[in-house]
């Protein structure tokens, strides 16, 4: 009986495997360049020259806002004949840049997350601060 079980397990081995995939949409936002933006001084034209064309332009009366976005997704799947395990981790960079009626930068807000995506199984925590500390420092341009 044990020999049949071992033979069956060996026969099912080719039906086990793993898949790792990654999908990036746009380049991650350049945090060091964004720090150069100066409210009251930087113009809409300078922002476009520095960061490229925005993903979206929103009219707010006589004012304007630009949206810049990037995303990164990492998938990891382990599959066997009987059971499958998978995880998808998607993170985004997002920058909203607001201009006054004279096309001068009034303020902006940015979040950075694309550098934090991880390949992981469902039982792993991908939101631990210790995992992200070195990635955050590297993205911010801080020497180790």
Describe this structure in words.
The protein is built from four helices and five strands. With 144 residues, the chain is of the alpha+beta class. It has one domain. Strands 1, 2, 3, 4 and 5 form a five-stranded antiparallel sheet that branches. Strand 3 and strand 4 form a beta hairpin. The longest helix is centred in the last third of the chain and has 12 residues. The mean pLDDT is 89.
- By secondary-structure content and strand pairing, the structural class works out as alpha+beta
Count of folded domains: 1
Spans with pLDDT under 50 lasting ≥5 residues?
Answer: none
Number of strands: 5
Shape: elongated
Summarize the helix and strand pattern as letters.
HEHHEEEEH
How do the helices and strands line up, and which of them pair or pack?
Elements: H1 2-12, E1 17-25, H2 31-34, H3 44-51, E2 56-60, E3 63-79, E4 84-99, E5 105-111, H4 129-140
Antiparallel strand pairs: 1-3, 2-3, 3-4, 4-5
Brief descriptors of the model:
alpha+beta; elongated; 144 residues; 38% strand
């Amino acid at each position: 009986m044990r020999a049949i079980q071992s033979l069956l397990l060996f026969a099912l081995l080719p039906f086990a495997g793993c898949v790792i995939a990654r999908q990036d949409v746009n380049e991650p936002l350049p945090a060091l360049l964004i720090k150069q933006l100066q409210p009251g001084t930087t113009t809409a034209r300078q922002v476009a020259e520095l960061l490229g064309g925005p993903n979206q332009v929103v009219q707010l009366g006589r004012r304007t806002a630009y949206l810049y976005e990037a995303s990164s997704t990492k998938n990891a799947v382990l599959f066997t004949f009987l059971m499958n395990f998978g995880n998808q981790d998607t993170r985004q960079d997002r920058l909203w840049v607001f201009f006054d009626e004279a096309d001068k930068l009034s303020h902006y807000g940015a979040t950075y997350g694309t550098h934090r995506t991880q390949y992981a199984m469902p039982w792993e925590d991908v939101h631990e601060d210790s995992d992200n500390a070195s990635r955050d420092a590297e993205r911010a341009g801080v020497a180790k």
